[in-house]
Sequence to fold (336 residues):
Amino acid sequence: MKRALITGITGQDGSYLTEFLLARGYEVHGLIRRSSSFNTGRIDHLHVDRHEGQPRMLLHFGDLSDGTGLRRALETIQPDEVYNLAAQSHVKVSFDMPEYSADIVGMGALRLLEAVRDHATHLNRPVRFYQAGSSEMFGAAPAPQNEKTPFHPRSPYAVAKVAAHWFTVNYREAYGLYACNGILFNHESPRRGETFVTRKITRAISRILAGRQAKLYLGNLDARRDWGFAGDYVEAMWLILQQPEPDDYVIATDQTHSVRAFLEEAFGLVRRNWQDFVELDPRYLRPAEVDLLLGDASKARQKLNWTPKVDFKALVRMMLRADMIDEGLDPDAFMD
Ligand code: NDP
Ligand code: GDR
Fold:
């Protein structure tokens, strides 16, 4: 049985990747942060009590700021594959907390790579490493963006992701580590954090329909993103680690839509006019914005045989339906 270690297992991607790996027979170990309230809501449905069965998902306390803990986790788990998904992943928050964001996103990746390197060397066992890179690293670089596009990051988060990217490349080149970067464009799902713009919109629509919210306050509606479905993207993470040679890949749908287009699609599904509900709140504007992200994932298509299955319209519908059900509404009463 293969063993995987996932940092960030409690996040959107961590939960889908855990489901994916469990279905392929893996034993999945996840690093979780101690929190004063429960933070495992996205993976609770995968939990099996040790006293009642043979769990294949096992959780360990840890934090990317704590290198000693990372080393201990590797010693205990002895994983075949390590997926580094943990991050302070909110771009706007990274302007408010730049040092912390850079420490977790950039230095955190380095701490984990150091731990993996030593573990692999001392025990002479191969460990494959996946780094969760981001289209934010391209930032202001002209579209379409692929593996050859130079980075031009526009936020502390993105700068730190660029550092993590190059740490990963460096450990591959310097130590022969099987270490790969997935450069993933935005991917969403019903499990997306509530403060990212797509989920903020679908959740707000459901609350408006339920009579629990009147207005939706947003920032820049002109930004364009290449939005895919998280469930499709975790398959790409796994495929990246199954190749004969380690390499870096852009993962995207190769289509882009503005925030405004997302609003039109989502409000349109429930036959409402978004202009009646959306107001600008300048607090949601960013000191530096990324205007246009549009991926070119042809390398992943050719080498990984990966293609996204869920398109933009299906994604918006899926997220809206899930939020309406959460809100106690019957989606079929509102949507065609
Ligand atoms: P989420 O924000 O949903 O999840 C982040 C995860 O990281 C959570 O499990 C969180 O724990 C954990 N985490 C945060 N800080 C620390 C820390 N100091 N130590 C250990 N764990 C920590 O992100 P996503 O699932 O959306 O994204 C996964 C990864 O992919 C991230 O690295 C993100 O930057 C990157 N990415 C995401 C994209 C997307 O569109 N979703 C696109 C490109 C890259 P807790 O639950 O306790 O907060
Ligand atoms: P992003 O996602 O910054 O691309 O990072 P987010 O959904 O936060 O923003 C997308 C675009 O929408 C604009 N926007 C707003 N954004 C938020 N969050 N809230 C608002 O009210 C709002 N109004 C307009 C933003 O300005 C932006 O242009 C996500 C994260 O998952 C990163 O971790 C990941 O690396 C990238 O995607 C790829």
Summary: Residues 3-189+227-251 form a domain with the Rossmann fold fold (CATH 3.40.50.720). The longest helix spans residues 98-123. The mean pLDDT is 98. The two ends are 45 Å apart (CA to CA).
